[in-house]
Amino acid sequence: MNPNQALWEKGDFTRIADTMRESGEALVRSIGVTRGSKVLDLGCGDGTTAIPSARLGADVLGVDIARNLVEAGNRRAEELRLPNCRFQEGDACNLNGLKDRTFDLTVSIFGAMFAPKPFDVAKEMVRVTKPGGRIVMGNWIPNDPTLVAQILKISSAYTPPPPEGFVSPMTWGVESHVIERFGAAGIAKEKVGFARDTFTFNHPKPPSELVETFRKFYGPTMNAFEAAEKNGKSAELAKELDTLFNSHNKSGRKDATTIPATFLRVTVAC
Ligand SMILES: C[S@@+](CC[C@H](N)C(=O)[O-])C[C@H]1O[C@@H](n2cnc3c(N)ncnc32)[C@H](O)[C@@H]1O
Prior knowledge:
The chain is of the alpha/beta class.
């Protein structure tokens, strides 16, 4: 199986996405999704941003490489009676089956950044977006001191080095790389805008329980624990993550978790 697909099907990202609902809704409200517009959500998971976009009346297609998340998204859309929101399997590196110039807005929040061929991803996003339309990406930032960049940094210290030629997903959080990738897809650098934004993880339990959720259900953390276990270092990894989550908790309580994380918001005018 494609290792990129295996990574995301390994766990159950819906358990993490449950903590991201409010920020997903806020983000969608802030990017001007309009009734009747055609929206592609790439690397959509179970619909953190696809579902709120559909609630605003857009005609939404969610595409994700993980079959379990596509199924979960379709279940949510059905339960919420949103016939204008559907989910299907697909790879951000090659959106075959999607026609050129189809979408008014292509959104990818912490999604397409995980696909292994970033230049192909940029080309595909530009190809399926209508001229005059927009692409909005949310990308974690390498070495950022906030939660997700730190989880990925800590985890990578316990996992074997990636295969040669592997491009870190975090490079999507570096402006010069983003400009280069969209430039190769025919977009002038003046048409690419950047802003720092915040996504908040909310969990009705203590931070240590959120660490456990990541350990059991978040593919990259699961892999880190598997590798750490082999080296007898899983307790060390657990301790590092526990300290990280507890020190970033802004809920003001010990029995609840609210952790903000900074990301790079990229807006491309096509
Ligand atoms: C961190 S999750 C974010 C999911 C969702 N956007 C959200 O905010 O809840 C990353 C998502 O990207 C998807 N993904 C990873 N590589 C992909 C690829 N090559 N093509 C499409 N989706 C991909 C994963 O399956 C997963 O759902």
